[in-house]
Amino acid sequence: MLDTGRTIPSIVFTQVSFINDYQMLWEYYCFTEELYERLITTDNEYLVNNLNKLSLTGACNGNKEKLDYFQKFSIDFFRKAIYTNCISMLEKIFREICLVVAKEKKVDDEKLSLERFTIKKGFDFLRRTLGLSVYEEIENFNLIGSFVELRNCIVHRDSRLTPEQFDQIFYKKDGIKAEDKFVEFIHNYNHVKQTRGKISLEAKCIIDVISNTELFLDKLCERIKHEVHDAQYKEIYEIMEKMKRNHNK
Length: 249
Fold this sequence. Notes:
The chain is 68% helix and 3% strand. It is mainly alpha-helical. Strands 1-2 form a two-stranded antiparallel ribbon. The longest helix has 42 residues, at 63-104. The two termini are 26 Å apart.
């Protein structure tokens, strides 16, 4: 049994609790994606009648063109909403992890405030506090960093590449700069499309961001829990493993 007064560390509860959120996000995305495919058809009279009322400019002259445009617009909008929400969940949970570490190590850092926190600052905090090099020790960090940059592109630049990024990717102007990891990511990642410099997401990209951010947070918690509590309390880890096994049944 645990010593009197000893509690299960907060990092364990954090690790277990976010799993359900990501599983639910996965199910919601898959269900809704399929729902869109079934509803956005010419058989949907309600949709077709409402599209007829729209005075869309450009090449959308007939009903089929309006329906095609609506399908592309709605799917793209839906996928980006799921994508950005997933990264927001990552930031929220990552901040909670850092707050757990700050409490355990009795550290007060104003950069962990809700207004100032960023994932980059969180990584820096873990490096300074625990000596944890996320870049080297968490194998899928680079992919997570690129996913965050893609979210920033979607949110802050309306999914548009900068002129410099566009030139590097499409015209190979001066080659792809090694230090521009985001350009390299867009160039090599197969599940984003670019049309006239504007990015759209394929279904596999959404699956990737959900599964990889969940895996990243799980590995991060696994790594941190050995730093914030004494190794002699093996019962703590046994409890956590039991909780994980029960979840997977």
